[in-house]
Amino acid sequence: MAKASDIKNGNILRFNGELVAVEDFIHRTPGNLRAFYQARMRNVRSGKLVEYRFRTDEEVEICRVETNDYQYLYDDADFYIVMDNNSYEQFNIPKKLFGEPARFLKEGMNVIIAFESDEPIMAEVPSSVELEITYTENAVKGDTSSGAQKNATVETGVEIRVPLFINQGDKVKVDTRTGDYLERVK
């Protein structure tokens, strides 16, 4: 067990039986009262925000979390199958850990997975990916108003908005958090 004073932003704690990630941790000394630590933490599984005041001598359990790069192999019902790049061991990662950005996953892509005692607790897709356009309408001649966009489907099956000059077969960089077109890749 550690003291509350040992907590740092980014730590994973076992708090009330749940795993929480510390987002903000501030030491406060209000006037002539006792000092305390104000913490804002996010539940790893549900995403719910929790605020709590720790006494300076309060004991907390800081969890040991191992984060590593893994290669995404394939989709299997409720799980994504990933492989450790060093040991070639394969793991089943629940789809809900990836969230919305998972729709841009493509086989062979590197992802980051965090484990706490052999249990996956967090999964992260790269912030941007390069994907090929598999289908898009042709631009209409004369439709050149500034910032005009059209629909396009990328190789993972997701439909995004791209500028008119993008054609079928082009590679584009896409922001996985928002699904926005970033740039054309040469």
Supply the key terms:
OB fold (Dihydrolipoamide Acetyltransferase, E2P), 55% strand, 186 residues
Short description:
This protein is mostly beta strands and 186 residues long. It has strands spanning 2-3, 12-15, 18-28, 36-43, 49-55, 59-62, 65-76, 79-84, 90-94, 110-116, 119-124, 128-136, 149-154, 159-163, 171-175, 181-185.
User: What's the β-strand tally?
Assistant: 16
CATH topology of the largest domain: SH3 type barrels
Counting structural domains, the number is 3
Number of helices: 0
C-alpha termini separation: 53 Å
Helix amount, in percent?
A: under 10%
**Name of the top-level CATH class of the largest domain:** Mainly Beta
Overall mean pLDDT: 91
- The dominant shape is elongated
| CATH architecture term of the largest domain | Roll
State the low-pLDDT regions, or none. Answer: none
Rg is 22 Å
β-strand amount: over 45%
Describe the largest sheet.
6 strands, antiparallel
Question: Biggest sheet, strands in spatial order?
Answer: 1-6-2-3-4-5
Order of helices and strands: EEEEEEEEEEEEEEEE
- Supply the helix-strand structural class: mainly beta
Describe this structure in words.
This protein is mainly β. The N and C termini lie far apart (53 Å). It has strands at 2-3, 12-15, 18-28, 36-43, 49-55, 59-62, 65-76, 79-84, 90-94, 110-116, 119-124, 128-136, 149-154, 159-163, 171-175, 181-185. Strand 10 (110-116) and strand 11 form a beta hairpin. The chain has a 6-stranded antiparallel beta sheet, with no helix packed on it. A 5-stranded antiparallel beta sheet has the order 9-8-7-10-11, with no helix packed on it. Strands 14-13-12-15-16 form a 5-stranded antiparallel beta sheet, with no helix packed on it. It is built from no helices and 16 strands. The protein has 3 domains: 2-62, Roll (SH3 type barrels), CATH 2.30.30; 65-124, OB fold (Dihydrolipoamide Acetyltransferase, E2P), CATH 2.40.50; 128-185, OB fold (Dihydrolipoamide Acetyltransferase, E2P) (Beta Barrel).
